[in-house]
Amino acid sequence: MAMVDEHVDVLIVGAGLSGIGAAAHLAKDLPGTSYAVLERREASGGTWDLFRYPGIRSDSDMHTLGYRFRPWRGDVSLADGPSILAYVRETAREYGVDRHIRYGHKVVSASWDSATARWTVTAEVEGGESRTTTADFLWSCSGYYDYDQGYTPHLEGVDRFRGEVVHPQHWPEDLDVTGRRVVVIGSGATAVTLVPALARSGAAHVTMLQRSPTYIVAVPGRDAVKERLTRLVGERRSYGVVRWKNIAVQSALYRLSRHRPRLVRRMVRKATIAALPPGYAVDTHFRPAYDPWDQRMCLVPDGDLFAAIRDGSASVVTDRTATFTETGLALESGEHLEADVVVTATGLNLQLFGGAEISVDGEPVRPHKTMAYRAMMLSGVPNFAFTVGYTNASWTLKADLVGEYVVRVLRRMRSTGARTVVPVRDGSVDEVPLMDFDAGYVQRVVHTLPRQGTSAPWSLKQDYLRDAATIRTARLDDGVLRWS
Q1: What's the topology of domain 158-344?
Q2: Which residues make Cβ contacts (< 8 Å) with residue 127, sequence separation at least 6?
Q3: For the chain, what are the domain ranges?
Q4: Where is the signal peptide, in residue numbers (predicted)?
């Protein structure tokens, strides 16, 4: 029998980077708003608490990954996971968010009732018990991947392998690679982080086995501009300047990549050649078949991956796996890789809204039948918002914009007495995929995602500078949002 837990003005799902940021926006900008945060796990931090693999770090610079309202302290460009987790939890304590988190609550369903203008959210708790929370507004901040299971393709012959097979999403605390041969399958952000970290951990040798190359760019481990500015004007003033500097650089690189892909290809190739030993087969292992930013670029601090290749502790093999053997991997080329540990850094399983079933007045919401309004609300779904970050820049840049916009919506509802707000789709707007992104985890499920439109406010441009201007100044009475 379900127990009634509580009623709140706003219910947030997820206590990770997005959820804690959302709650902090409410705490600082809408005082007096009652809210709760439902977190399925027994700890806050989301991604930064879940992932424990060696070398875990941010894949974008910390001066833009940090919240706009709470500067990231320090000069490190790509911070390690424990530092980011501490930053997120410190933010929760500073804004009192930690007192509103309900741990061990896995949201399984959320139903909207127009008669009462309320959401009823059901969560499973320990022991199989269910609890319900009602809310005037529902805000999904659960990210976009499945926390229970990472993506692993079919691995032929894996049962005969006598070594260990590990997925980074579930890294064993007692795994020791000292003196062991490690093969990391994959070439994305996780793989390029793991390879040099495992090499530093004393592995006999680490091999990155990739089907095809990825764009990998070395960046300074510390921001020299930030260091100099901090000495001159102090931490807080320097943060704003460096943040906008990094935003401008990110945006410029992305736009240049889309408009002049051949130029960016040449730039990246030239830098890669300089970072690797003379005569290295750069075009075999570091020349992707796709254009820059068709998939996310991988950043490596101080070129640590290239350094591991130079000193011989790591290597790259571009080939396909034919089958596992008792002692390693047989490749389609006929080569055999000896291995004691195989790490399947093969990606994520994308999952919307934490897998919860959403319904409106008894009718299930099928995401692929909806259109995303400003990439944060769904057509036909009242009093609902979701936070999904950028694919071409720091996640938190978009999360902060969503937070600011939701606060504007809630403030207007409070001042006018409106009880519902819902984006209503115009049938004349054409549909396109929500994410124009070739990454495997997106392409596997793109047909299940909400659509976006070809014109504002239904289109997503993956452009923070444009979004920052339009989202912060957009009229709430735009003819698309319906208030009642």
Answers
A1: FAD/NAD(P)-binding domain (3.50.50)
A2: none
A3: 3-148+349-483, 158-344
A4: none
